[in-house]
Amino acid sequence: QVQLVESGGGLVKAGGSLRLSCAASGGTFRTYVMGWFRQAPGEEREFVAAIGWSFGTTRYASSVKGRFTISRDDAKNTVYLQMNSLEPEDTAVYYCAADRRYTHAVVADVSDYDYWGQGTQVTVSS
Predict the structure, then answer these.
(1) Distance CA 56, CA 119 (A)
(2) Which of 26, 54, 118, 124 has the most CB atoms around its CB within 10 Å?
(3) In angstroms, rounded to a whole number, what is the distance separating the alpha carbons of residues 14 and 114?
(4) Where are the beta strands (DSSP E) in 14-110?
(5) What string of pLDDT tens digits covers the 126 residues of the chain?
(6) What is the signed CA dihedral for 63, 105, 112, 33, rounded to 10 degrees?
(7) What's the rounded Cα separation, in Å, for the pair 87 and 67?
(8) Residue 11: its pLDDT value, please?
């Protein structure tokens, strides 16, 4: 049973930064594509960023490209999301997810991910 636990959310002013962490346990983390998604109230869950396991390939939503950076530390079974220049529109619950399919494709669809964390709230005030 794979468990994902996010941390690092909070309240920050516009222009500020936060770093989210997602610690994984119970699986072969180093072969998972890892992703971050977010969901605002009344909205569908949307892709934010993902990182592959083989070449460290990354992929970002256009809305966060240049502001957010995803990274992973396989020795710690942890994936990170560094969020800079935060905007009120970034306010959402952020979820960590894992794709266990042993694929090199860094995917962005919610349905491609098998395991999910419980989420961490990020609130950006104007």
Answers:
(1) 24
(2) 124
(3) 33
(4) 18-25, 33-39, 46-51, 58-60, 68-73, 78-83, 92-99
(5) 899 999 999 999 999 999 999 999 988 999 999 999 999 999 999 999 999 987 889 999 999 999 999 999 999 999 999 999 999 999 999 999 999 988 888 999 999 999 999 999 999 999
(6) -80
(7) 10
(8) 98
